[in-house]
Amino acid sequence: MDTVRLKAYAKINLGLDVIRKREDGYHEVRMIMQTIGLYDKISINPTNNPSIKVKTNLHYLPTDKNNLVYKAAALMKETYQIKDGVYIHLEKRIPVAAGMAGGSTDAATTLYGMNRLFHLKLSNEELLKLAVQIGADVPYCVMRGTALSEGIGEILTPLPPFPSCHVLIVKPNINVSTKFVYENLHLDSSTNHPDIDGIMKHIKEQDLYGASKLFGNVLETVTEKEYPIINDIKTRMLENGAIVSLMSGSGPTVFGLFDDIKTAEKAFYDFKVSPLGKQVYLTNLFQPDANKFV
Ligand code: ATP
Questions:
Q1: Are 159 and 147 in contact (CB under 8 A)?
Q2: Whole-prediction pTM value?
Q3: Is-catalytic flag, 11?
Q4: Which Pfam families does this one have (predicted)?
Q5: CA distance to 26, 57, 77, 135, per residue, from 104 (Å)
């Protein structure tokens, strides 16, 4: 059996709304998700002993069952009674704990990789059922592209591809706990909910500017209050000519969209030398080929 090598792509949220807190403690969300060209690299090798071994370039990440790559491989092994073990190498490039679903996309990609390596011939629908057992964002990371995500993240509706543009990613040197953000989100009549339906309407019309005007993330109110640097980055992106800038997920990563590469590159170099950004990337949207996993 050959080594399987795959790219695990990050996501940004073009819109993120929280509808309510459910009785079971989960939050019901409505989010517009978009895959971008920033990725981790995953290679999976079969081994003769039954164990799962994970190695990664980031020494502080877990390599046991607490790594989502391990969890995904273990779920596949158990569900399909795979006797062989695997050696997985994970090269992280997506900022960690940053609101870009890094761990979830690694898990989704491992599901694809195990499917291919062991010739399981599972459909996307079967992979989606496994994905939801790992985490709320993992099903979207199996689907990828432009999509509406509802429920706790497991109800997915594909949308027409978002109009192509350049994406600047800036992650400041702070760590934000997703748990902290949700615990400090207090929804009331003054909450400014983004117009998710309006964004979808403009996406269907392929109207980049119209959609961008409506972008919003209800979690920004919590994170920006605690970490003013997020607002500083957003402001600087707009000063640098971004069409829109927004925090992704529960942060602290901020993204900006640009329709002109020269402006985007200028902004990229500005952030590269600025103390505001610890990790800075310039990339594009990524729209997957429905029949092919890259
Ligand atoms: P989300 O956007 O879904 O909220 P995130 O970007 O905030 O995700 P991750 O990068 O997925 O967060 O990581 C959150 C935590 O999960 C990390 O602190 C890390 O300890 C753990 N983790 C487990 N597996 C992975 C992985 N493969 N990559 C990154 N983090 C992982």
A1: yes
A2: 0.95
A3: yes
A4: GHMP_kinases_C, GHMP_kinases_N
A5: 17, 18, 18, 7
Looking at ligand 1, which residue's alpha carbon is closest to its atom 29? 103
Q: How far is CA 145 from CA 99, 110, 163, 232, 284, in A?
A: 17, 18, 12, 29, 12
Question: Above 70 in pLDDT, residue 292?
Answer: no
Domains and CATH numbers, the chain: 4-158 (3.30.230.10), 166-284 (3.30.70.890)
* 101 assigned binding-site residue: yes
Is 277 annotated to bind a ligand? Reply is no
Check whether 102 is labelled as a binding-site residue.
yes
H or E element in which residue 110 lies: helix 102-117
| Ligand 1 pocket residues where CB is under 6 Å | 61-62, 66-69, 90, 96-104, 106, 137, 178, 249-250
Q: From atom 28 of ligand 1, which residue's Cα is the shortest distance away?
A: 103
Between the CA of 103 and the centroid of ligand 1 the distance, in Å, is: 4
pLDDT in tens, 208-264: 999 999 999 999 999 999 999 999 999 999 999 999 999 999 999 999 999 999 999
For residue 2, give the DSSP letter: P
